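hey so i finally got around to running the thing on that chain from the lab meeting. sorry it took forever, my laptop kept dying and i had to restart like 3 times. anyway pasting the input first so we r on the same page abt which one it is
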Amino acid sequence: MNTVLHKAETRGHANYGWLNTYYTFSFGEYFDKERIHFGALRVLNDDTVAAGRGFGMHPHDNMEIITIPTFGELEHQDSMGNRMVVGPGDIQVMSAGTGIYHSEKNKNPDKEVRLFQIWVFPDKENVTPRYDQKHYAPLLKRNQFLTVVSPIGADDGQSVQIHQQAWFSIGKFDKDVATEYTLKRKGNGVYVFVMEGDISVNDMTLNRRDGLGVSDAESISVRALTDSEILLMEVPMY
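ok and heres what got predicted. didnt touch it at all, straight out
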């Protein structure tokens, strides 16, 4: 088993006034040659967008872009004609494929919006762009992981799909609850991100916003040291 630990305080940081963001991996003006990606996981940004502000129309291609809001509401528009609002308990995916333009704006004029934006390298390029969004909150059971992202074709009714052999899971756990996560595909690794709380993974302690990449393992053991919310991102390691 191989591990790579990224403590929260070692992340890149930028504050543009309207956007306060922390970068787990190199992004924008933040560059660390040791932190480019974890397998197919390319970007993990922890964003806070000021009231009424946001990203104007801008292009993407050949990337799977996943957005998970945790507070407030984010308004999405794109060149496919989609205009949607995403909030806590929702998960959104945009397969950029051959190319797409989109904008993301804080819908509310009087409160911030907080979100995680995650990019995953696709397993095929130049696909037709697509958009998907689901409200997973009613399916989330305490002290269990729920799969919220899965590969195209894995039509389980609860997750959004991406062009990659990757699975994301979210779980809310009470203090002292322990569980095991078994990887779904041989050769994949899993990146554990602590959204809230304190946990241990294979007896290694992680705190709020810490990340731990684990590869060359078939499973990991997770224990909540406090009431915690955890995001697991299982991705190919090539």
